[in-house]
Amino acid sequence: QVQLVESGGGLVQPGESLRLSCTASGFPLDYYPMGWFRQAPGKEREGVSCINSSDGMTYYGDSVKGRFTISRDVAKNTMYLQMNSLKPEDAAVYYCARPTRNCSPDLSALSRDLEVWGQGTLVTVSS
Fold first, then answer.
1. What's the CA gap between 72 and 76, in Å, rounded?
2. Residue 116 pairs with which residues in a beta bridge?
3. How confident is the prediction for the chain on average, in pLDDT?
4. What pLDDT is attached to residue 55?
5. I need a surface site. Which of 22, 98, 105, 118 has the fewest CB within 10 A?
6. Do 60 and 68 contact (CB within 8 A), yes or no?
7. 9, exposed or middle or buried, with CB in 10 Å at 0-12, 13-18, 19+?
8. Quick one: what percent of the chain has pLDDT higher than 90?
9. SS in 3 state form for the chain?
């Protein structure tokens, strides 16, 4: 049974940090490209970050570059998203997902081709 479970979301003030976790079961997370995607009310799903399995190359959306960091822990079969300097625009439901192909700079297109995803975790950024 293939499954992804996200956790770590919550309410924070602008400028604060949060770390999201995504634990995979039923498949080795490091054997596939994996990414983080988010969706805010009334908006389309947006690609946040992606990490390739082979070379470990990472990609980030323009709005989060320099603030977010994606990583993996093979032993725990878990992926993380460290989010620093959070802004109100970052508020959304964040999803951990496995794309159908390798990561690329076009995260928007990648967000439309996800084969496995979790239930999501809510991140709220408000003062």
1. 9
2. 98
3. 97
4. 85
5. 105
6. yes
7. middle
8. 96
9. CCEEEEECCCEECCCCCEEEEEEEECCCHHHCCEEEEEECCCCCCEEEEEECCCCCCEEECCCCCCCEEEEEECCCCEEEEEECCCCHHHCEEEEEEEECCCCCCCHHHHCCCEEEECCCEEEEECC
